[in-house]
Write a structure and sequence with these properties.
This protein is of the alpha+beta class and 293 residues long. The protein has one domain (6-211): Immunoglobulins (Immunoglobulin-like), CATH 2.60.40. Helices cover 30% and strands 25% of the residues. The chain has helices at 26-34, 124-134, 192-195, 213-256, 274-292; strands spanning 6-7, 13-15, 20-24, 46-54, 59-66, 72-75, 78-81, 85-93, 107-115, 138-151, 172-174, 200-201. The strands form two sheets. Strands 1, 3, 5, 7, 9, 10 and 12 form a seven-stranded mixed β-sheet that branches. The longest helix is centred in the last third of the chain and has 44 residues, at 213-256. The protein is elongated and about 140 Å long. The relative contact order is 0.18.
């Protein structure tokens, strides 16, 4: 996927962590792996909470990416953050081997761009796709963070939701902007090798992304509109059926109608025999002959 052209002269968001620390309890994740034959059913071994702060008076679209998408679930991976508000992002790490992944290159990339108020009801994923497609420079900035694993025998992973559900953590609250440092937090250890990492969206260990609350609400609204439209069409269909039935009945009634000659009630029907008919014809011919003479 192409990179987004950003005007990063002034940062629009900041993170509360420079390095993403994941505490690992060897006892818990070892038992978890031993008790599950399917590694895709493992519970998260560790959860890291990240707070993203919108430093502007505008809405921003935010997304998270990682180099190890098969080992992480980001909740939510895409989200729209209100002006001067913050957003909590849950990063869940899944252990699939008993070996602690120290030394492995686990990295995250966080991107935020300013959007118009007219776009706040759009799914944030769609907004990013449109920006990339247009290939135009937008106001925004990026943070690239390294991951650190720490052994802690007393650590117990937090229960922050079930993957694949529509329950999305969208913790957005007001903050005191005066308490935020003017110099935003920046990640450390960024090298030329790190810059060339091919990042992937962070959908989770099963490869299925978790929708954020805005996308779920938009889908629900579209579904409700579709249901209403179907109801209206059903009503119109019923009206048309009734009209067709009425026209059919009228046609049947017209076919049944017959034309009758009116006979006054007091009139008597005159019956003429065949002999009388012959005599009348003879005299008519005779009369015609004399008239021609």
């Amino acid at each position: 996927m192409s990179e987004i052209l950003m005007d990063s002269s002034s940062p629009i968001f900041t993170l509360d962590k420079q390095v993403l620390q994941f505490k690992i309890n060897p006892k818990i994740y070892s038992q978890n792996i031993e008790n599950n034959s399917d590694i895709n059913n493992l519970a998260p071994a560790s959860v890291c909470t990240l707070i993203v702060t919108n430093l502007t008076d505008n809405y921003i679209a935010f997304r998270s990416k990682t180099t190890k998408k098969e080992l992480y679930v980001v909740n939510p991976p895409y989200v729209i953050i209100e002006p001067n508000k913050n957003q909590t992002i849950f990063l869940k790490f899944y252990m699939k081997t008993k070996r602690l992944p120290n030394g492995e290159k686990h990295k995250f990339k966080f991107e935020g761009i300013v959007i118009d108020e007219s776009d706040i009801n759009k799914p944030p994923k769609q907004i990013f796709e449109q920006v990339i497609k247009k290939n135009k420079k937008v106001k925004g900035n990026t943070f690239k963070n390294n991951v650190e694993f720490i052994e802690d025998n007393n650590y117990e992973p937090e229960n922050v939701g079930v993957e694949g559900s529509e329950i999305i953590f969208n913790v957005s609250q007001s903050i005191d902007m005066s308490q935020i440092s003017k110099n935003p937090l920046r990640s450390t250890g960024v090298s030329e090798m790190f810059q060339s990492v091919n990042y992937s969206n962070a959908p989770g260990p099963q490869g299925s992304s978790i929708n954020n609350s805005n996308e779920s609400n938009n889908l629900k609204n579209e579904n409700d509109k579709l249901k209403n439209k179907i109801s209206e069409l059903n009503i119109e269909n019923s009206i048309l059926k009734n009209k067709i039935e009425q026209i059919k009945k009228e046609l049947e009634q017209k076919k049944k109608k017959k034309e009758y000659r009116y006979i006054p009630p007091d009139s008597k029907e005159i019956k003429i025999s065949q002999t009388d008919t012959i005599i009348i014809c003879f005299f008519s011919l005779l009369l015609g002959y004399f008239l021609t003479k």
